[in-house]
Write a sequence for this structure.
């Protein structure tokens, strides 16, 4: 619900800001600004919002949180009008268009003539039309310097002239609309509050995109999605951990083979007495290998599974910690009364328009302690090759299909587990032209065995000493991998 023109006039009548200096400028959201003013011995935080369904102007009770990163319009205002004084503020007729004239004096160096004090007047317009609101900084002749929302269809771009009427008929040429000042409730425990205070309290609790209710609804929706993603991931890891916890059985089977070296396998099985768990057991063996070599394979498998269990358990701890941190942050936001602080908390968590800084070009994910990188274009493939991988890292690419380069970052004294190799192969096939086939062959080799194609296009390499890997896209595995990419980079 936006303010009507009579309510805007009432808000302005309570503001004594003419002559006040603009000391601070903040932009709490993409559709609002706050001017920190000082005049007549009083500090005033003036909010102007053009949010959909909540266009308004009013005084805030407290200073908004500072922006942690620069926003274009805020930086423009700071460079032009910070330090200036409010000459006048008025609503143009009953059109819900505000004009604030601002006088800025600056001393300029004239060389040999010394410095000269120059004064320039800027105009800050705020069109408080729900669904078509805008805030524009203009020269004194209404030439647009910049706008909070650049609207080419309305010709609201830098260098154009701003038409305050927006093409509407003047008040005398259109039917009059009857508006009344609504009875906003008084803030709890504060009898005799001003109209500004009532409006600020009402919007803080329930009005528009910057309302506390709306912001908390957004926070809860985000938490629910994040929680579902993390719980799915934790469940998959716990299932994997249960399978790894039976690594002791592989060691036992190796011991059983070594204790029965005098026996002969029956094809692919060796029948022995199980002195660990009772009864007898058929131990699978490779008839092409000696019994000690078969036992060594079981010992090696047990060693790898024990190592994998440790990594899986660390991953479980990590994701449970993430889930606990998300829950704690939601509780913190729910405990805040100031909607601007809640908005700031949501921005820290990543807004739709805010992209997090990425360590690598393309996509990346962490799985069981291994880092997998995916280049989705020739440019990303080339940048990964040049700046982000080493000779000991593993490279994968779909055979006979154009597609992504996928890399597995090496780890000291660790060989790449089969599960990680299949994960990377799945991504290489999925991000290739062979995705629709559902399965296919891939090359894989170390980066040090790649050589650039002479005079070839950007990123093109020729592998040597490559091996083949056949992969079928498993939808469950793919969902897990894409969820991990989303968890790191959404």
């Amino acid at each position: 619900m936006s303010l009507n023109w009579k309510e805007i006039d009432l808000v302005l009548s309570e503001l004594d800001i003419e002559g006040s200096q603009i000391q601070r400028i903040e932009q709490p959201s993409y559709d609002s600004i706050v001017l920190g003013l000082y005049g007549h011995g009083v500090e005033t935080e003036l909010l102007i919002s053009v949010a959909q369904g909540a266009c308004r102007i009013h005084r805030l009770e407290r200073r908004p949180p500072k922006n942690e990163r620069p926003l274009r319009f805020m930086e423009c205002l700071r460079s032009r009008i910070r330090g200036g004084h409010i000459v006048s503020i008025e609503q143009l007729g009953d059109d819900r268009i505000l004009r604030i004239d601002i006088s800025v004096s600056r001393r300029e160096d004239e060389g040999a003539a010394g410095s000269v004090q120059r004064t320039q007047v800027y105009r800050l317009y705020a069109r408080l039309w729900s669904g078509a609101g805008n805030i524009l900084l203009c020269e004194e002749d209404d030439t647009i310097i910049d706008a909070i929302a650049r609207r080419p269809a309305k010709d609201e771009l830098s260098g154009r002239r701003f038409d305050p009427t927006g093409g509407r008929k003047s008040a005398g040429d259109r039917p009059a609309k009857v508006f009344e000042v609504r009875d906003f409730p008084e803030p709890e425990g504060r009898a005799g509050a001003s109209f500004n205070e009532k409006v600020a309290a009402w919007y803080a609790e329930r009005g528009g995109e910057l309302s506390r209710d709306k912001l908390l609804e957004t926070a809860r929706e985000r938490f629910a999605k994040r929680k579902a993603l993390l719980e799915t991931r934790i469940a998959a890891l716990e299932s994997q951990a249960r399978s790894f916890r039976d690594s002791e059985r592989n060691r036992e089977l190796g011991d059983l083979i070594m204790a029965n070296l005098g026996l002969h396998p029956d094809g692919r099985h060796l029948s022995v007495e199980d002195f660990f768990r009772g009864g007898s057991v058929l131990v699978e063996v490779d008839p092409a290998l000696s019994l000690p070599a078969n036992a060594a394979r079981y010992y090696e498998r047990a060693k790898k599974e024990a190592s994998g269990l440790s990594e899986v358990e660390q991953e479980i701890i990590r994701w449970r910690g993430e889930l606990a941190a998300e829950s704690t942050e939601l509780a913190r936001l729910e405990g805040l009364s100031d909607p601007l602080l809640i908005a700031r908390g949501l921005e820290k968590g990543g807004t739709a328009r805010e992209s997090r800084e990425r360590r690598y070009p393309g996509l990346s994910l962490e799985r069981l302690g291994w880092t997998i990188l995916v280049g989705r274009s020739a440019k990303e493939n080339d940048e990964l090759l040049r700046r982000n991988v080493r000779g000991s890292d593993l490279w994968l690419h779909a055979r006979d299909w154009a597609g992504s380069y996928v890399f597995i970052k090496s780890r000291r004294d660790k060989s790449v587990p089969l599960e990680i190799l299949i994960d990377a192969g799945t991504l290489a096939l999925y991000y290739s032209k062979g995705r629709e086939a559902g399965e296919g062959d891939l090359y894989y080799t170390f980066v040090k065995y790649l050589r650039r194609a002479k005079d070839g296009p950007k990123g093109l390499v020729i592998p040597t000493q490559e091996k083949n890997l056949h992969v079928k896209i498993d939808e469950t595995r793919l969902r897990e991998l894409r969820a991990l990419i989303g968890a790191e980079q959404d």
